[in-house]
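Cross-posting from the modeling subforum.

Setting up a comparison between two proteins and wanted a second pair of eyes on the formatting. Protein 1 (sequence, then C-alpha cells):
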Amino acid sequence: MKIGIFDPYLDDLGGGEKYMMTVAQCLSKDHDVKVFWDNKEDIKELQKRFSLDISKVEFIKNVFSSKVSLLTRLLQTKKFDVIILLSDGSIPFSLSKKTFIHFQQPILISSLDLKTKYKISRINKFFCNSYYSKSYVDKSLGVNSIVLYPPVEIKNKKGKKENIILHVGRFRVRDVTVSGVPIGDYKKQKVMLDAFKKMVDEGSKGWSFVLAVSVRNDDLNSFQVLKDSAKGYPIEFMVNKTNDELWDIYTKAKIYWHASGYGEDLVKQPEYAEHFGISTVEAMGAGVVPVVINAGGQKEIVENGKNGYLWNNIDELLKYTEDLISDQNLWSKMSEEAKERSKIFSGDRFCNELSDLIK
C-alpha cells in the first residue's frame, strides 16, 4: 500500500513525533511510506535524537501546509491508499481511500458544526495514545476511538545502580507572561527540583537528582533560571541527549519522578497532565521505580504500591521516595515488578496492532 503520514509538530521532537515516526518505521517494512514534511534538517535531528530507522521512508512536499491550496491537497492525497494524521485538534480533508486520525492529548469541544461532523464521518478510525486521551476525544467528537499505546523500546543494558533520582522530559515554558516574565512550568521540573531541595534540607544525604531534559533555543533563558536555582545541591542537568545516552542514565538510576499536571485545573485543562508517559515506561524497563503523579496517563502505567507509587501532593512524593530509600528490600521488589510491567508496552506489540488497524 501507498501510505502517507503527517505530523504538524514534527520539528518539536517530542513524544508525539517519536510516536508518528515509529508509525512510519513500522509500516515502511511492508509498504511504500511517505511523510509530508519540507525541512530536511528536522529529519536529521529526529533520527539522531530517537535512534529510529526511517531509511525506507521518503519525505515529500508537505501538502498539509497552510501555504498549499485545498485543491492541491485533495489531488495529492487521492493518490494514497492510507493517510495517517496526527491531529492538532482539527480534522483535515483527505481523499485517500482510508484516513486515520491520531490524538496525542485530550481535547475539549463543546459542540460541532456541520462541516466538522461531515469531516469526522469520512474518517475510518480515530486512535489515541491512552485511555485518558480517549475519554476526552470520544466525548468531544462523538466517536469510539481505539487506544494504541505508544511504542516503548526497552534496552537490556547492564550497569550498577547508583543513588540517583531521575526525571526525563522536555523543558517547556507555557506561553504565559506576567510583567514580561515567562511563567508556567509545563512539565513541573521546578516543582520536583524544589521538592528534592526540601528533601536535602531536611537531612537526606547520599542521593542526587538528575534532570534529563530537551531544551529548545526559545526556552534557554528560562532554563538557565532553573539551573541557577539548583546551585549548591546535588542536582545535575543532562541536556538534549540522544536515546542511547538516556538509557545510560536509566541504567544507573533507582527512582523516577514525574509531576506533569501538579497544581493544574485538569478538569478545565486536561492536556496539562501527562497524556501517557513514555519516559516512565522506559525508566521502569531499566528497573527504576516510578514515583509519579496520580494523574493522566500515569495511572494506566503504574500500579500503586506494586510496581511504583502514585502521589497526590508533595508530602506523598517525599514519603514514598523516603520509603524506597530506607528499605532496600522494598526497592528491589518494586524494581523487578516495574521491569515486568514495562513489558506490556514494549516489544512488537505496537507494530502488530498498527498493522491490524489499517487493514
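Protein 2 (same layout):
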Amino acid sequence: MTGLRSWIAAFALFALLVPIDGTAHAQAPYYEGKTVKVIVGLRAGGTADTFIRTFTDYWQKYVPGNPTMVVENMPGSGNLIATNHVYEAVEPDGLTLVYGPWVPTAQALDLPELRADYANFEFVGASSDIRVSYMRKDVPPGLTKPADIVKLETFNVGGNAPTDFVDLLSRMSLDLIGAKYNYVTGYRGGSAIYAAILANEAQYANTSYGTLVTRSADFIAEGGDGMPVYYFCTRNTAGEFVRKELQGNIPCFVDLYEEIHGKPPSGPVWDALDWLVELAAKVTFLALAPPGTPQEAVVALREGFYKAAADEELQKLFIERTGEPVEFVPAEEGPAALEVLAATSDEIKKVLREYVESGQK
C-alpha cells in the first residue's frame, strides 16, 4: 500500500496546485445549493458508467459549495450525441457537463457525427484507462502464450464501428504485429462483443483492464477459454513508455512486438497507433463544460475533480474492484491533449482515413 500512499500524496499535492480564483471564495461558493447534471454518453450499468457514477459521488463532496451531482445517461454514437448536446444545447452556466470517452479520431477526420470542437470546451478533468487485447485460446493451432498470436490461423476480431478508437487500436496493432484476422464490425458495445467471443463467433477483442478482470475474470482465469495477449502502455512526459504490473503478466504491446520481431515498431501505422494510444488510452475519459462557462464554475469543478481523484478511500475502492488504482490526467496535461489533437499531422490523418475506409468495405 506504500505505492498507493505515495501516489495519493503526490496527487493531493497536485490538487492544491490547481489554480483557485480567490474572489470566487470571498462570497458564497458558486455551487452552493445547486445541482450539477453530469451527462454520460453510455448505457447505464456498464463498467465505464459505474466508474463515473462512483467517482461523481466523491467529486460532489469536494466541489466548493457541495452541490448535488446527478448522472444522466445519453447513449449513442460512442458518446458523440452527449458531446454534441453539451456543446450546442445547454446553458454555459456550469450546471451541465459531459463526462465520458472522447473521440479524437472523429475530430481528426472531420467526421460529421461530431459537431463539437473539443478545443472550445472548458477542460474540467480527465482520467486514463488501460486498454487490453484478449482472445480465445482455442484458435488453431492454439494460443499458449501471447507471442503465439502470429502463428494462429485467421481469427475474427469483434468491433463496434470502423471509426471507433477501440476497433482502430485492434486493427492497427494486429497489422503491425503480423496476425491474420477478419474484421467483424457492427456489435453494439463491449458486452455484445464479449458475448460473441463466448459463443466463438469472434475470437479477439479489446477492452478496458477493469472490465477484463471483473466481467471476464472466469474467461481469462487459469483453465478458462481465453487469455489476455497485450496491453497498450502510454508514455510519461519524457516520452518513455510506462509499464504496468498487471494480473497475468500481460506484456506491453511494444515489448511483445520486439519479442516477435527483434526490433521496436516503426513506420506510419505505428505512428498513428502511438498517437491514438496517447490520446484515447492515456486520456480516456474527459470531463468537459460547455464553451463560455464562467471561470469561477470551471475552477470550482476542477478543484473538486482533482481532490476527489486524490481521495484514498475512493482509490482503495477501485483497487478492490480491479487490483489497480484509477489514474487521472494532471490538470495541466489535459488541455495539452486537446492541443495535440488540433495539431494532428496529415500523415496520421491519412493512415486513420485508410483504416476507416477499408473497415467500411
